[in-house]
Amino acid sequence: MIRMDMTDVLVKIKRDPSAADLPLPSHGTVHASGVDLRSNEEGVLQPGEVRAFGTGLSVEIPPGYEFQVRSRSGLALKNRVMVLNSPGTVDADYRGEVRVILYNAGAQPFQVRRGDRIAQMVLCPVLRPVFVEVDSLSGTERDSGGFGSTGVR
């Protein structure tokens, strides 16, 4: 029996037979927002290299939600390995394998072993905008200032 509370959302997950021995994604702590994704593949990520690693998992996300695939802070800080398109989006209508695009920004090769936790995945609600074309927008103090217009201090 699955125990759920008011903040839980049921997500169906399918494990490829090649990932049958790997743990399903899970929260590392009680209040963790993300679940760890493990690599279903082995490989060496050379400095400056970008490569997609499989997880052996497919998901069925309820309409109105998405998964965001994000870097793990420890990998980014200690090894300079990160999810390149962070956050990567897994849409509710996608049924293929969840793959993680990793980038090695470090100076050393990085070994990915099968079963390594390579990213985290966070379930997020999706709001769909309805666009209304207008002739003008309301003004603000900032107005069109951007790209560092407020300075660094």
Automatic annotation (TrEMBL):
Substrate binds at R72, S73, G74, N85, T89, V90, D91. It comes from Thermanaerovibrio acidaminovorans (strain ATCC 49978 / DSM 6589 / Su883). The lineage of its organism: Bacteria, Thermotogati, Synergistota, Synergistia, Synergistales. This enzyme is involved in nucleotide metabolism: it produces dUMP, the immediate precursor of thymidine nucleotides and it decreases the intracellular concentration of dUTP so that uracil cannot be incorporated into DNA. SUPFAM superfamilies: dUTPase-like. Keywords: Hydrolase, Magnesium, Metal-binding, Nucleotide metabolism. It catalyses: dUTP + H2O = dUMP + diphosphate + H(+). This is Deoxyuridine 5'-triphosphate nucleotidohydrolase. Belongs to the dUTPase family.
